[in-house]
């Protein structure tokens, strides 16, 4: 981006150092998505075949799933002939969050780069006339805008379901939830990086 003789490479939030809370969130988001099919597999094994550890793991993951999801079998993906610990939409949300967490971890190795051809100070966005617009959308910070947009696919499937009485396919519901999970993960990681920068 060229601005007043200066070449400025946009700074990625993901490149900043995160707090321990942010790193913990990334680890848990990835771990949870791994545990969902593992627990489903463990739950599918008959009692004499499954190990005690497998049964305990399945119990814990399904129990956590019952707190955060309705777990209706007809709304859940079936793996190994067993419903997963969370419904299809929740699965999509968690997969979206885990994928965004992986992107954040992958991008952390890139440091912010700023190159200047002159000694000119960087002007804030307000000075460039890009923020002070009277419309309502401009008053929303980027995190709120991303969150609002990410909810739209899930909202569309809910409106379809409520207005027609038909449930969309599992893959449609999972796909509609993925942007919401990705947005939440991005917001958490962005906040963690900003908090670390402010320390």
Q: Helices, strands, pairings?
A:
Blueprint: E1 2-3, E2 6-8, H1 20-44, H2 52-68, E3 78-79, E4 82-83, H3 88-107, E5 114-116, H4 136-139, H5 142-164, H6 170-198
Antiparallel strand pairs: 1-2, 2-5, 3-4
Description of the molecule:
- It is a single chain.
- The chain is flat and about 55 Å long.
- It has helices spanning 20-44, 52-68, 88-107, 136-139, 142-164, 170-198; strands at 2-3, 6-8, 78-79, 82-83, 114-116.
- Helix 3 packs parallel to helix 6.
- The strands form 2 sheets. A 3-stranded antiparallel β-sheet has the order 1-2-5, with no helix packed on it. Strands 3-4 form a two-stranded antiparallel sheet.
- It has one domain (13-112, 138-198).
- By secondary structure, the chain is mainly alpha-helical.
- The chain contains 6 helices and 5 strands; from the N terminus they run E-E-H-H-E-E-H-E-H-H-H.
- It starts with a strand and ends with a helix.
- Mean pLDDT is 81; it is low at 1-15 and 125-134.
